[in-house]
Amino acid sequence: MKKILSAVIAVMLIAGATVTAYAKESDSIQSGRTGGVILDKSAPNVSYPSQAASGSSNLPEYYSSVDKGYVTPVKDQKTQNTCIFFSATAAMESSLLRNGYGEYDLSEEYANYWASKRKDGTGWQRDRVNIGAFPYAGYGYLSTGGVVLESDLPYMSRTEQFFEDIEYKEPLFYAGGIKLLSPPCANPDEFKAAIMECGGVSGSFAYYTDNYNSATKSYYCGDTHTDAELASGGHAVLFVGWDDNYPRTNFRQGAQPKNNGAWLIKNSWGSTMSYIWVSYEDNYVGSDLFGNNYGINGIIENHSCNELLKVDSYGTIYDTRFTNGDGSPVKDAVFINVFDFNSIMPSVRSVEFSTSNVGADYTIYYIPTQNGIPDSNEKNWKELASGVTSYAGTHNIPVTYKVKDSQGAIGVRISSNDDMPASLGSCESVIDPSQGYLFKPAVKGDRSYVKIGSYSMNLTDFYLSSGDEFGADLTIRAVMNVQIGDVNKDGSVDISDATHIQNYLVGNVQFSQEYQEISDVNGDGSINVGDATEIQKYIAGVISSFKATFQNH
């Protein structure tokens, strides 16, 4: 969510400089089957890649993810205002196909419940049937809640009031990478490249019946609408292709665009308007008035050998960023989350973080803690990975590190290389000036920290001291694994693991698919007697590590 810099919520003296944190207020109106997207009236704060950098010369004039087999069957949201969740799950289904995981029918109803008010009063303050949602609720569910099957909770099959009332299902996948995109009119090549990379892009447009040509299944809105009209017409869909030569004459007579070209979108109204061609020149197609457009460019597979550690309960909603006392941006900051580690799954496989900075340098650290507080002495930090952010959104970075502590911290340094302040995604409250809270976070309070120069602060304490009643948690996650070689998953590699492999080879025990990575210690692609021998060598001290390493999913 984008922040308005004039809405100051806190001022604090840090290392001789005044540091200011910001939040925003949001407008919302909703009604009917369309209007499922709550308007986001804040000013943009994402530094998108330039059009010249998007590689337009390599993009075809026509492309369809439907033709490529990356699109699942069209579904029907019926009369509920749930298009955000149909768009989100469609994006995930296409990403799974694009990344070779196969076809899945994911539950929109589970996402709808997840993004509703909880029994303790936290969460999105929305009715599951009549009130729409921000796109942040959609991709927050994908990255934080995790997806389950349609058969686990069929659409419109429950009447319980709260998410806690339905049977919990272990997620199959999480979105490990989420690429945020500028409106297609601002950077069409970037949008096209993301469709090809991700299988589809979740976005919105404003639908009004008079603008639709049923004969050609085409749509063009060249009119300007009020906020109330946009709020009632906003509809989330999945962009799955384009045609630069789509004839302008296919659109409604008397109100046609000036040029050829249209986006192919997958709808969620069943056989009624299942696919629609929307003109490149449409006034509101993919507009940031409807929040972020995004594609899923990374998948985290959830299985018994993986554990996703997170502090934020609902995903990224804002960016946390700061300015100095003279108004200049703080361009270098370390954002930190403290985690409790599981001795059975001690290996950090990847680190996920969210930032709006593009072209920024990042460095990921393991940071020891003392009494639950991150060690501020950077000499004691262990660097795990570094690189440059190529897009705004969520990044899942492979690392290899075995944690020996029961508690520790993961830190992400963001160093901006443009005029943008260093930022990291955070989960914090959303307020509407006329309706009050739209979202109340479930903040842990003692887990997120920020270090600027030599000064470190507890993020929630910083917010609470400024009058914010909830505080905020940062979007930094750690994907943990069982240690390679710990075949029986008891927290250590010992002779029982070699015995476990031998029992598997003679048929006494069965291994599920996820056992391949932790059991194939010699990395030859199969589980055999050589793996048992490698474990015995490791126990005897003949070798200090295994040849195999975890593959990042």
Structure commentary:
The chain has 553 residues and is α+β, with helices and mostly antiparallel strands. The chain has 3 domains: 8-23 and 303-481, Sandwich (Immunoglobulin-like); 58-296, Cathepsin B, Chain A (Alpha-Beta Complex), CATH 3.90.70; 501-553, Type 1 dockerin domain, CATH 1.10.1330. It has helices spanning 65-68, 83-98, 108-114, 135-145, 188-198, 227-233, 459-464, 495-505, 515-519, 529-540, and strands at 8-14, 17-22, 62-64, 123-124, 173-181, 201-206, 212-213, 218-219, 234-243, 262-266, 275-279, 293-301, 306-309, 318-320, 332-340, 347-355, 361-367, 369-370, 373-374, 382-388, 393-402, 407-415, 424-427, 430-432, 436-440, 448-452, 455-458, 473-474, 476-481. Strands 3, 6, 7, 8, 9, 10 and 11 form a 7-stranded mixed β-sheet that branches. β10 and β11 form a beta hairpin. α8 (495-505) packs antiparallel against α10 (529-540). It is globular and about 80 Å long. The two termini are 27 Å apart. Residues 1-32 and 43-56 have low confidence and may be disordered.
Number of domains: 3
What number is the mean pLDDT? 87
Report the sheet with the most strands, covering strand number, pairing sense and barrel closure.
7 strands, mixed
CATH topology of the largest domain: Cathepsin B, Chain A
CATH superfamily of the largest domain: Cysteine proteinases
Look at the helices and sheets and give the structural class.
alpha+beta
Range of strand content: 25-35%
Assembly type of the chains comes to single chain
| Number of strand elements | 29
Span between termini = 27 Å
Number of helices: 10
Q: So what's the CATH class of the largest domain?
A: Alpha Beta
Specify the CATH architecture of the largest domain: Alpha-Beta Complex
* Rg calculated over all Cα atoms: 24 Å
Q: Detail the poorly predicted runs.
A: 1-32, 43-56
